[in-house]
Amino acid sequence: MNTLVIQSFRNHDIEPWIQRCLDSVRVWCDVRGYQRCFVGDEIFDLVPDWYMEKTGKGPVATDYARLVLISEAINNQGFDQAIWLDADIYVLDASMTLDCPGSCAFGQEVWVQQARAGGGKLEARKNVHNAVCLFRRGCVVLPFLMETVLSIIRRANPEKIAPQMVGPKLLSALHSLHDFDLLPQVGAVSPDVARDIIAGGGPALSLLQKESAVTLQALNLCASLIVNKMDNVEADKLIAGMGLLTCH
Questions:
Q1: Second CATH level (architecture) for the domain 3-246
Q2: What are the pLDDT digits (tens) for 189-229?
Q3: Residue boundaries of the structural domains of the chain
Q4: Cβ distance 187 to 216 under 8 Å?
Q5: Which residues share a beta bridge with 39?
Q6: Cβ neighbours of residue 58 closer than 8 Å, sequence gap 6 or more
Q7: Contact, 1 vs 10, CB < 8 A?
Q8: Which of 48, 114, 137, 244 could make an SS bond with 74 (beta carbons 3.0 to 4.6 A apart)?
Q9: Sign of the alpha-carbon torsion through 129, 135, 141, 142
Q10: Cα-atom radius of gyration of the chain, to the nearest Å?
């Protein structure tokens, strides 16, 4: 299937760990025979002015822009399918396949964190997200999702727009009704799991392994929560230790 993989990040001052993530996706694309498209800050040119005025340059604007890029790829550029991967996703297994029986699929993460009840107990929650998403030509969900995102932001109070409003929160709500195909092989590293990986093991890592339905082949490093708060040495240790997660 003629496939385009799309990623976006700024074109300057790219942190070493982000470059390692981007390079891992480039290798994966070469192995799979996929074309790859990298978009810099010009991605925000795809977002309507009124939308940008409300959201600024950030995840909420990118949530819409990625849908525009995907739509262009499958409707105007001749690709059979387009896959979006966030720039902070690291591919552990270059033989990874992202496939689904339907016309679209979204990521599913097992997010390990301290239980809200407290007491130091850990809990694992399965969330739908768009750090990875796949659409094929003719998908009816894509135009619906694009229009829904625009509608939500058009009506939203700009002071109450949350970072995940038209990304994971919207997809999770729609998934409860539509039952999307999911891609659990692309997991996520929560802060608790990151600490365990750097330490070489721990309860959060064990819980993630226990609750993961499949062997993890790629990981979202969740830059805004984890790596941006680390120095380069810690980030390198995290990436180097992620092989622990391939043991299911």
A1: Alpha-Beta Complex (3.90)
A2: 998 998 899 899 999 999 999 999 899 999 998 877 665 56
A3: 3-246
A4: yes
A5: 8
A6: 163
A7: no
A8: 137
A9: positive
A10: 18
Is residue 115 within 8 Å of residue 123, measured between CB atoms?
yes
Give the amino acid at 96: M
Query: Mean pLDDT, consecutive 10-residue segments, the chain of 248 residues?
Result: 96 88 97 97 97 95 98 97 96 95 96 83 94 97 98 96 94 95 94 90 94 92 69 79 71
* Assessment of whether the complete model's pTM goes beyond 0.85: yes
Burial of 241 (0-12, 13-18, 19+ CB in 10 A): middle
Name the token pair of 163: 């970072």
Buried/exposed code over 81-111 (b: 16+ C-beta within 10 A; e: otherwise)? bbbbbbbbbbbbbeebebeeeebbbbbbbbb
The amino acid occupying position 248 is H
